[in-house]
Write a structure and sequence with these properties.
2 copies of one chain form a homodimer. Chain A is an alpha/beta fold and about 350 residues long. Chain A contains 13 helices and 11 strands. Chain A starts with about 25 loop residues before the first strand and ends with a helix.
């Protein structure tokens, strides 16, 4: 007998990027940070004793939320909710603000998880294509929906829509706008002040990228307290364990360490982009920690991906519309970027 | 403007038990284990280096699921799914097997989170009262529903319905049966073998109680692979962080340590129950790590709760039908139990 809900029958779930066991692989496929996190993070974890494990964690993660509020320029913890990774917060946004059957708006392309989350929730995702420069179109501004997921900088292109365009959109949109700023620490500017200006905006951040903490699963959402209160109603009582709360606090306390790492990635990003351009790739300017490298010709982008994998260099290939001729390449260390360029030169010169 | 879903307007969310900052409080209110976890658990956490934090955790938590399968007598990881606490798995069961508008069955009383989860999901919870001995009634057997939450041992009574009764129910019920075995390690027997016998049964466990790991948020569900596959579709991609996976594996590797702690709690439980009976409380035999102590008279149970709190001893009081004359008391260390009994004697003799 089939006990599952009918809406799950066609759902395949989200496919995370490969996580190879082989430590010799150069991993440029999941947008992890190539540099280690602040040493204070592990110190904070090591300082936890048996009692921290034995007891329930703070269900409201007050200290961490207060640190986030202070850092992001908000008056208090009631403007902030934290989650077990930003993915949990994205799912909660649907559960809080979208009824099954409602329409959700997103650009195309964008973070492919949104589509899975909408399927699981029974919501209808309406994609509106970005233009050829990965900018918003007038159709996007005109499309009504209960909620909009807007990734800035966009994934997988790395392009950031101008702040004023985002503001114009938030002002005119009648539903909730989730501004997914997963990669914004690598950008020139951000929209973290928007919740003070717009009652319908939720800004989300992850600690997986700029803070080098993908293993700790930490997400943050900032919005007006009325919206945050809905998240608090629906979240699992103890959704952040004692480790993640300690890690999040320690990382926030050492914010400059994150900024220094981000500067290194931004520097490598420009170098790598120039080398890819020189090899003949078409690469939009990225405000993120990855590059979307378009390639037309033989071998195909898919074959490039496969031949790189054979040389133990993983990048991300999406067999999806507008992306089938591209590779998404995480900006690694200088050595990792050089190894990639050398491998590409070898493949392309054969 | 109100952006929230209409179904959330009357939801207050779940109220976790108090977590006082004062370290001098005797905390018998949230069913934590009074003894520390296996030392191997913290060793496993301390062994994690910067790379474990920098990279994404195993999205499928394969090693931990394999250890659970082996321990619980199942052929492989495909019979197991793990979560960020058992609460996450309970919510996922609704998302996987219940459509909004469907009926969910539970006994009354039971774990009060089920009601909140049903509200959030838009499902209709049908309570059927347990009898005066906290046993299932024929009405419960006759009530159809898409899914049933059955807590064994029951919370907050601590009473375990006989295994054969549970089997008879699972056999006749047409929907999914979630057997919530959060407290089963403290019981004489369990139903962990039921998924081999019944295609509609999901057994759930938490590491918060017997394993002394409430801070680490670890839940486990066991069922036939077809059901587990639905959980894998709907779970957050990386729902268990790198710490919890390491902690869960280490705890499973030191299973005997957990059993030794459980034996101590069971011993204290019998001693505390006898003392409460001698003081005039009515206390059903508990198969759990807490006792439901009924009290009729003056002061009322609520007043007892308040007067204990004034003496810095926290127990749990529920202002709910059938529970308004009772205290739920977590079995603490021998010293904590003695302090409670002394305080109760003092209050009752005034």
């Amino acid at each position: 007998m089939n006990y599952a809900r009918a809406l799950l029958r066609e759902v395949e779930g989200y496919t995370p990027g490969e996580q190879p066991k082989d430590p010799g692989v150069i991993k440029l496929n999941t947008n992890e940070n190539p540099y280690p996190p602040s040493p204070r993070v592990l110190e904070a974890v090591h300082a936890l004793g048996p009692d921290a494990l034995r007891k329930y964690p703070d269900p409201l993660a007050v200290r961490f939320r207060e640190l986030c509020a202070a850092r992001y320029g908000y008056p208090g913890a009631d403007w902030v909710v934290v989650g077990n990774g930003m993915d949990e917060l994205l799912a909660m946004a649907l559960r809080g603000f979208v009824d099954p059957g409602d329409t959700v708006l997103a650009t195309y392309p964008t973070y492919s998880l949104y589509e899975v989350l909408c399927q699981l929730h029974g919501a209808s995702l309406k994609y509106v294509d970005l233009d050829n420069h990965f900018q918003l179109t007038e159709e996007f501004f005109r499309t009504p929906a209960r909620l909009c997921f807007l990734t800035r900088p966009n994934a997988p292109s790395g392009v950031a829509v101008p702040r004023e365009e985002v503001a114009r959109f938030c002002e005119g949109f009648k539903g909730i706008v989730v501004l997914d700023e997963a990669y914004t620490d690598f950008a020139d500017d951000n929209c973290m002040d928007f919740p003070t200006r717009f009652e319908n905006v939720i800004v989300m951040r992850t600690f997986s990228k700029s803070f080098s903490l993908a293993g700790a699963r930490i997400g943050v959402a900032v919005a007006q307290p009325e919206l945050i209160n809905e998240f608090l109603k629906i979240k699992d009582s103890y959704n952040m364990d004692v480790f993640s709360q300690a890690v999040g606090c320690a990382a926030m306390d050492d914010y400059d360490d994150m900024l220094a790492r981000v500067a290194k990635v931004r520097y490598s990003r420009e170098g790598l982009r120039n080398k890819l351009l020189a090899l003949g790739f078409d690469v939009p300017e990225s405000q993120s920690n990855f590059l979307l490298a378009h390639w037309k010709g033989v071998p195909t982008a898919r074959e490039l991906y496969q031949q790189l994998a054979a040389r133990r260099i993983l990048v991300r290939y999406f067999s999806a519309r507008r992306l089938e001729n591209a590779l998404r390449i995480t900006v690694g260390t200088g050595d990792e970027c050089s190894a990639l360029v050398t491998a590409l030169k070898g493949i392309l010169s054969r």
